[in-house]
Design a protein that fits this description.
- The chain has helices at residues 40-49, 52-56, 75-92, 97-106, 115-126, 134-145, 159-167, 186-194, 205-229, 234-237, 241-253, 259-289, 294-298, 309-327, 330-352, 360-366, 371-383, 387-397.
- The protein is an all-alpha fold.
- Among the domains are: 206-330, no CATH class; 331-397, no CATH class.
- Helix 4 crosses helix 7, helix 5 runs antiparallel to helix 17 (371-383) and helix 11 (241-253) crosses helix 12.
- It is globular.
- InterPro entries: dGTPase, Diverse_Catalytic_Enzymes, dNTPase_2, HD/PDEase_dom, HD_domain, PHydrolase_assoc_dom.
């Protein structure tokens, strides 16, 4: 699919009519005076960067636990890569770059320690109390759990940023009120009672580019980290025609390239091709939908920023390879089991004796609560932990802590 380069928004500062407009935002739950120097979406992005949750991403991992080495991605480095790609897509499509970047920066706030392993373990122990969902947890963090401002809990983001956080992967409700991907997490429904995020519509195009940027970033960096770790080889990449083609390009142009540079040349091409694919698809769909406003984007009935059919197939092939070669590798599965035990043990210990959480705020707020609200508070505390803090907390409470190496 070809890109219309004349329609790209590079360097002209122009915002399309279908872009979200920070000057006509739907506002914040708690009314605040405007800034004379920053747009409302700039303020959102800045607030996100200054949160405790953002700093904690530095010590939260996804696949490879931090003890494995300093060069593997963490949630923070992944988030920065997603934000860079989202901003590039937003600029090309003449969107509000600050909103796209803000949604990208906040999208992983709700993740637990130890990546998806920690999330699965926390969901399992919280099932009797409504379960755990990282997207809903992100919403709880920015609307309730961050305690920085004198006049409200959370960081009081604009409606558009919250909408993007919750709906960046598409609507959560069908028109009949049923969940599009199963029941909508209760924290999201509870928040919408006081600040309706319109769960049955698509999100802004800014949120959509943040979502697809996430796919692009983690596909690429999990391959990079997989090659670094030795769980992936170049021969394995050859099984995917798209990646084999990229390697042929690099070999033809640089026949004697060392492994690290060869890897980087593949990765940069992969990102570029995927970004260009999304731009071309978005341009085509914009020409079909012809949205005149961000409202038209929300009511388009389909995603606008997404992969082409061919790139979607490549995306699926890459995910299948990563799942088989890395995520289900015996070494990773052993580490996952140990990480899950740490989360499960800590949950049981804190439910039995909340004072073990060693935080006046958490202990004071949990004392005397029934099991369901107490479990939710314990879940909040655990979800906020970094990998290193969770390991340290487990060592303090238990005689033997799993070796995550």
């Amino acid at each position: 699919m070809k890109i219309d380069r004349q329609a790209l928004g590079f360097g002209n500062g122009e915002r399309a009519t279908y872009a979200a407009d920070p000057w006509t935002t739907r506002g914040r739950l708690y009314v605040e005076s405007t800034s004379p120097t920053r747009s409302e979406f700039q303020r959102d992005r800045d607030r996100i960067v200054h949160t405790t949750a953002f700093r904690r991403l530095k010590h939260k991992t996804q696949v490879f636990i931090a003890q494995d080495g300093d060069h593997y991605r963490t949630r923070l480095t992944h988030t920065i890569e997603v934000a860079q790609i989202a901003r590039a897509l937003a600029r090309a499509l003449k969107l509000d770059e600050d909103l796209a970047e803000g949604v990208a920066l906040v999208h992983d706030f709700g993740h637990t320690p130890f990546g998806h392993t920690g999330e699965d373990a926390l969901h399992e122990v919280l099932l009797p109390y409504g379960g755990f969902d990282h997207n809903a947890q992100s919403l709880r963090i920015v609307t309730k759990l961050e305690r920085r401002y004198a006049e409200f809990d959370g960081i009081n983001l604009t409606w558009e940023s919250l909408e993007g956080l919750v709906k960046h992967n598409g609507p959560l409700l069908k028109k009949d009120g049923q969940g599009t991907r199963g029941p909508v997490p209760q924290p999201i429904l509870d928040y919408c009672e006081i600040h309706d995020l319109e769960l049955a519509t698509f999100a802004s195009l800014e949120a959509q580019v943040a979502a697809i940027a996430d796919d692009i970033a983690y596909n690429t960096h999990d391959i990079d980290d997989g090659l670094r770790s030795g769980y992936l080889t170049f021969e394995m990449l050859e099984e995917i025609p798209f990646l084999a083609g990229l390697m042929d390009e690099v070999r033809e142009r640089y026949p004697h390239l060392e492994k690290s540079r060869f890897t980087h040349e593949i990765m940069r091409r992969q990102i570029t091709r995927m970004v260009e694919d999304v731009i071309a698809v978005a341009q085509k769909r914009l020409s079909e939908v012809k949205p005149k406003s961000v409202k038209d984007v929300r009511e388009a009935g389909k995603l606008i920023a997404t992969f082409s059919e061919a790139m979607s197939q490549t995306d699926k092939q890459i995910k299948q390879m990563l799942f088989k070669r890395i995520y289900r590798h015996p070494d990773i599965m052993r580490i996952r089991a140990g990480a899950a035990k740490i989360v499960t043990d800590l949950f049981a210990a804190y439910m039995a004796n909340p004072k073990e959480m060693q935080s006046h705020y958490w202990v004071d707020h949990i004392t005397g609560l029934a099991d369901a609200p107490k479990a939710r508070h314990v879940g909040d505390y655990l979800a906020g932990m970094t990998d290193t803090y969770a390991i340290s907390a487990h060592r303090r409470l238990f005689d033997r802590t799993p070796d995550l190496r």
